[in-house]
Amino acid sequence: xxxxxxxxxxxxxxxxxxxxxxxxxxxxxxxxxxxxxxxxxxxxxxxxxxxxxxxxxxxxxxxxxxxxxxxxxxxxxxxxxxxxxxxxxxxxxxxxxxxxxxxxxxxxxxxxxxxxxxxxxxx
Length: 123
Known about the structure:
The protein is an alpha+beta fold. About 15% of the residues lie in helices and about 40% in strands.
């Protein structure tokens, strides 16, 4: 089971302060839109999403169909297939992708400690 590109999505109080802090750690803005309250930052193969006012908690994020540079992959496991695998394994989903759809979709699960894990396919 291939979950796709991995990042940590941080719920931040002040996007600009967070950007400045992480730039001091060697990260650079890779994508996003500060006017909308979110930035994607990278340091080598490490990726962090900074999200102001979008999420209540920090979360792990996986992006099926993308490599670590948000480039589309020719082959990947579709989010709906991943979702079905987890449901078959007895994992409860907090939100689900429409299994009759194709293309972009997402689902959310919580780990045993309540940490959100978002599987978010953009292709």
